[in-house]
Structure formats: structure tokens, C-alpha cells
Amino acid sequence: MGRRGNLPYMIGIDLSGKTALVMGVTNSYSLGWAIGEKLLQAGAKCIFSYQGERLKPALEKLLAPYEGTLTGQCDVTNEAELESLFAQIKAEFGSLDYIVHAVAYAPRASMEGRFVDTTQEDWNTALSVSAYSLVSVARHAEPLLNEGGSIVTLTYYASQKVVPKYNVMGIAKAALEASTRYLAYELGSKNVRVNAISAGPMRTVAAKSIPGFTSMLSKAAEMAALKRNATSEEVGKLGLFLLSDLSSGITGETTYVDAGYNIMGMSFE
Ligand code: NAP
């Protein structure tokens, strides 16, 4: 508690007693980690899910300073693995307050060529992993979610405007943002909120698979109102805000953390 003039004010967000599932952390650069680490620092009890055993040792190393943090294996396209992850959460936590969905994938070939050449198989893979998974995660989580619960997913501006080479992932992100609104409507009667964070480009493993990503970073910084790229730390802070009660009146929204890139129509100065 601090004091400004005669008005008391609180600094920090205390999430002790809250439980969270964080999906999609590969390493310390992952945007899932940017939010997950904030949840841990705020005192939430967390379980981090990983796609395959290959990732487990690195994840456990990352989580080592946070005693009592759990991990669970789950490929989001596998119904049986989703079922067993949520059974584990029920057994360990009893209920769930927050979910961070930071999962996306499109076959590299679908982002190297022309959008018009997208195969049906690549389309299905990208939309299944990157958009449908939010719906199936929400369905499996629903019985466990506490009143006041909150779900956050990660999206990108290519859902709204053409970003060359983003291709089918742009379509997947458009479906993800629309799914966020439909889920927000349906879960709203239980006082569970669902929001999307639209992050500017950031160096992560997933971003490396986007052809020309480095020049995308510098172009974005040039155009942005703040004349720089947003940071994963800023994604983390927005994630914490959208999960916590500070944002209790906000649901179904796509909120940008892109240093003011998306507000610009043109830049010629
Ligand atoms: P990241 O560190 O590579 O995270 C993506 C995660 O998705 C990885 O942990 C990956 O696991 C996981 N994943 C992929 N397929 C999966 C599946 N079938 N089941 C379970 N997990 C699966 O990259 P990131 O950039 O932080 O991505 C997180 C989210 O942020 C994504 O939705 C991405 O589109 C979004 N985003 C990123 C940027 C950016 O510029 N980086 C900008 C806007 C939005 P594996 O490592 O095992 O494949």
C-alpha cells in the first residue's frame, strides 16, 4: 500500500489462492512465459502444459525457481490428452481461475508460398491448432472454471489486414478472434471472461518460422506511433491485467500491444 497525497493506492496484483493453466511455453522468449511468469510472480498456483516430452526438461528448468509449479503434457489437437490434462488439473487444483492460450502452428510451406496455393491439409492444421484449440480448451475447462475466471489468447494483426507471408495464419487468427467473441458471450453468463491480446512482432521460436520476420520487425518499429517494437514484458503486463479483476468489465475484446502500430494509416515523415 502506498500513498499519494491523502489517497491510499495499491501497487501490484495479488493472485495468491488463484490457479492458472498456461499453454504454449517453449522457452523464456515465449509469449506464454511472458504472461505465465507474471502469474507466478503475483502468487498464482500454475500448471504449464507442453506439447511433447521433448520440451519438458527445458520447461522444468525455467520453472525451477517457482516451487510447487506443475507441468502436464498436452497436444491441443488431441482430445484424449486434453481430457487427461483437465483431469490432472481437477485432481491437483479442484478448480481453475485463469487460462493462457499461447499456442499456434502452421506448416512452414504454407507461409513460404502464395496464399492461393494453401492446401486443404495445411489450412486444416493451422486452423485446428491455432483457433479451434481455444474452443476445445474452453469446453474442457468450463466445468472447472470459477466465477470471475478469465481466459486470454494471443493473436496478430494479420487477422485484420494483409501481412504478406502470414497467409493461412492470418485466417487462423481471424477465426481465433471471432471465437474469442463467441466464447465471451457464452461464458459471460458464468462471469468468465475471454479476451485476445494482439501482440506486435516479437522474436520467438514461432516467429522464426515466418519468412522475412527480421525485416517485419524493423518495418513495424518504423511505422509504430511509439517508434519501436512492443516487448514481451509489455505482453506479460497486459496479460496479467486481462486475467485479473482489474479488467473485470472487459470481455470478448482484442486488445493491441504493438507500440501503436495498428492505429497508423500511413507513415511518410
Ligand atoms: P512460441 O514460443 O514458439 O510458442 C508457441 C507454442 O505453441 C509452443 O510452445 C509450441 O510448442 C506450441 N504448440 C504448437 N502446436 C501445439 C500443439 N499442437 N499442442 C500444444 N502446443 C502447441 O512462440 P510465441 O510467439 O510465443 O507464440 C505464442 C502465441 O503468440 C501464438 O499464438 C502466436 O501466434 C502469438 N503471437 C506471436 C507473435 C510474435 O511475433 N512472436 C505476435 C503476435 C502473436 P512446440 O514448441 O512443442 O511446437
TrEMBL record:
SUPFAM superfamilies: NAD(P)-binding Rossmann-fold domains. Pfam families: adh_short_C2. Keywords: Fatty acid biosynthesis, Fatty acid metabolism, Lipid biosynthesis, Lipid metabolism, NAD, Oxidoreductase. It comes from Deinococcus cellulosilyticus (strain DSM 18568 / NBRC 106333 / KACC 11606 / 5516J-15). InterPro entries: Enoyl-ACP_Rdtase_NADH, NAD(P)-bd_dom_sf, SDR_fam. This is Enoyl-[acyl-carrier-protein] reductase [NADH]. The keyword Oxidoreductase applies. It catalyses: a 2,3-saturated acyl-[ACP] + NAD(+) = a (2E)-enoyl-[ACP] + NADH + H(+). Belongs to the short-chain dehydrogenases/reductases (SDR) family. FabI subfamily. NAD(+) binds at G24, Q51, D75, V76, V103, K173.
